[in-house]
Design goal:
It comes from Calidris pygmaea. About 10% of the residues lie in helices and about 35% in strands. It has one helix and twelve strands, in the order E-E-H-E-E-E-E-E-E-E-E-E-E.
Length: about 170
């Protein structure tokens, strides 16, 4: 028997697999698919939502990749209102310097704003911030009302190259 809880606590999956009966596995898969149609969730490598992570949004996910296979230790549902996302990026720490209001996926490598951001405020939604223009490298989830005045705190100062809002499900 195995259990998996998702924070904030909305659902606890407990399941037992019997080789002669696929029903529990089918029920578990059905519950996970239903979650993936309502809100995104983030699978973290370590407990307490730390380490490398993967974002799962609406859709089928049959494989988590070799980097995360058998390594997921915590899951977090993103329950923020994801409609009409907006984040303000600032050139300097403490929300100073040139600012940019972003409302959609943005590749900063295509302009003069690549690798200059040092702080942000999220007005609406949840955002995936990435070190490289292709979404790779260091990544950070920025959520509504969780403002970050100094990217040095997460070793991300002047490294932001790509960001996108997390997408709401259709359910």
């Amino acid at each position: 028997s195995s259990c998996c809880s998702i924070y904030p606590l909305q659902k606890v999956f407990c399941f037992t697999f019997f080789p002669s009966s696929p029903a529990p596995l089918q029920r578990f898969v059905s519950d996970v698919k239903r979650l993936l149609t309502s809100v995104p969730w983030v699978a973290y490598e370590h407990i307490n939502y730390t380490g490398w992570f993967l974002v799962f949004e609406e859709g089928e996910h049959s494989f988590v990749g070799k980097e995360m296979n058998d390594k997921i230790s915590s899951l977090r549902l993103i329950t923020d209102d994801l409609h009409n996302p907006q984040i303000t990026l600032y050139e300097h720490i403490n929300y100073e310097g040139k600012s940019m209001v972003i409302r959609q996926a943005t590749d900063l490598t295509r302009g003069s704003s690549n690798d200059i951001v040092s702080s942000h405020k999220v007005q609406r939604g949840a955002w995936l911030l990435c070190e490289h223009g292709d979404g790779s490298g260091f990544r950070y989830i920025a959520r509504e009302h969780e403002n970050l005045p100094n990217y040095k705190a997460i070793n991300f100062n002047d490294k932001l190259s790509f960001l996108r809002p997390l997408r709401p499900g259709k359910a």
